[in-house]
């Protein structure tokens, strides 16, 4: 099948086709979308998330100290947090389903998953949204170094990987601790930074490198009551550390500057270029991408990780067409693409009642295997098709396909027109024959949304 660039780009790089939004005409339009997405105002700032965190923590502590954890005030705050999670899912769905092109929002999703955060605790969920909006979004079209620095130093990451608990064992803080055995080094951030965020597994670093990096990172932290401060010298391990053969810091601690120097080293390693290039190829092209594609993407990495240059290679690469429908849409992408194909506008999505939002977005995603904002580990969501398509999970997609459109739309479109709008003539002969034979409009739409053609990009 020969697929024209506009349809190819919309389906493979964005959230699919729409009856009300034209597909991108050329690669320049796709790349311009990334810049526009990065420049969009955040829907929630880190400062706002911190205020929510503090407010909830205060109410929760007050209720527990009073022995009334289920007081009406505490219940109301918890209910508010649940409602906000539903609101956040509507916002992300609206951003993605109604994006002009969609490649920028796909990259927001990709990088948010690459730098997975999922901190647990009273009132911290908004911090995850702020992480996406202020650490990821503004940096998707710059350098990998800037993106890495913003992600690794954001409160959501520091809380998630327990960096806030990491203390150098020879630091002033540890020496004066009342319970020395309860303070010490935590290697989580250092390990995930090397293993999942930059170099990748098997890149030749050692446990000693991880431990030295963890010592270098001591001092980096987050305290909700002092949100503007990210570095605490009294918690830092004194002296120099050697990581990957290079020495950082010295007799007098260089503080956050030495940590930033380490970020630059990691961003410029060839192992990082290859590791990130392969992740992009896996996410956008094929579960098992050709080595040539990975090499082409890595070759564009340049100094500090020139992300726009890497995207330019990806957007124009011939393997985009060669592996058409080589990827299964993950549940979030599937629902966002469904809303886009149904022509829902931003106001209609944002105006959905919380109950409907929870049922058709949050609950539906959870049943399809991808609970919103709740990955099971720091390695994020799986990419392989078998992680998302099995009889049980596919049944949930079919249920959404058959039920959601008649709830979400005031009037259903003709299934033949819907198939053309959603797939742009790329549908298989089998689907093209099945849709006109559907017994009802509802069934016709469901056949398209549940089809292999729609579930894959």
Automatic annotation (TrEMBL):
InterPro entries: DUF1800. It holds the Pfam family DUF1800. This is DUF1800 domain-containing protein. It comes from Paracoccus suum. The lineage of its organism: Bacteria, Pseudomonadati, Pseudomonadota, Alphaproteobacteria, Rhodobacterales.
């Amino acid at each position: 099948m020969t697929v024209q660039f506009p349809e190819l780009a919309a389906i493979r790089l964005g959230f699919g086709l729409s009856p009300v939004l034209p597909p991108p005409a050329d690669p320049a339009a796709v790349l311009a979308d990334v810049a526009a997405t990065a420049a969009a105002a955040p829907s929630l700032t880190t400062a706002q998330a911190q205020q929510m965190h503090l407010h909830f923590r205060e109410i929760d502590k007050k209720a527990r100290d009073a022995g009334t954890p289920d007081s009406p005030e505490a219940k109301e705050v918890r209910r508010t947090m649940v409602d906000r999670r539903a609101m956040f899912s509507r916002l992300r769905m609206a951003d993605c389903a109604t994006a002009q092109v969609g490649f920028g929002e796909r990259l927001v999703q990709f990088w948010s998953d690459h730098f997975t955060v999922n901190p647990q605790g009273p009132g911290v969920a908004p911090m995850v949204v702020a992480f996406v909006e202020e650490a990821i979004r503004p940096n998707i079209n710059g350098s990998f170094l800037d993106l890495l620095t913003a992600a690794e130093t954001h409160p959501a990451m520091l809380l998630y990987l327990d960096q806030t608990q990491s203390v150098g064992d020879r630091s002033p803080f540890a020496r004066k601790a009342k319970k020395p055995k309860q303070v010490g080094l935590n290697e989580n951030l250092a390990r995930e930074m090397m293993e999942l965020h930059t170099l990748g597994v098997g890149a030749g670093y050692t446990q000693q490198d991880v431990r030295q990096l963890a010592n270098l990172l001591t001092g980096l932290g987050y305290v909700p009551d002092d949100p503007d401060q990210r570095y605490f010298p009294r918690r830092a391990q004194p002296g120099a550390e050697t990581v990957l053969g290079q020495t950082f810091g010295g007799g007098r601690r260089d503080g956050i500057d030495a940590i930033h120097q380490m970020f630059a080293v990691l961003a410029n390693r060839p192992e990082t270029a290859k590791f990130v290039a392969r992740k992009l190829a896996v996410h956008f092209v094929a579960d098992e991408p050709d080595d040539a594609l990975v090499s082409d993407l890595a070759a564009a990495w340049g100094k500090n990780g020139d992300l726009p240059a890497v995207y330019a290679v990806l957007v124009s690469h011939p393997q985009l067409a060669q592996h058409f429908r080589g990827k299964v849409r993950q549940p979030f992408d599937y629902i966002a693409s469904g809303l886009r194909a149904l022509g829902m506008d931003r106001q209609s999505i944002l105006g959905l009642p919380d109950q409907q939002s929870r049922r058709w977005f949050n609950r539906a995603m959870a049943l399809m295997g991808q609970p919103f904002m709740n990955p099971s580990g720091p390695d994020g969501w799986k990419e392989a098709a078998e992680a998302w398509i099995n009889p049980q999970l596919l049944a949930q997609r079919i249920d959404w396909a058959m039920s959601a459109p008649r709830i979400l739309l005031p009037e259903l479109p003709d299934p033949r027109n819907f198939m053309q709008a959603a797939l742009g003539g790329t549908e298989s002969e089998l689907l093209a024959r099945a849709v006109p034979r559907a017994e009802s409009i509802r069934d016709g739409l469901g056949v398209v949304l549940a089809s292999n053609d729609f579930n894959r990009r």
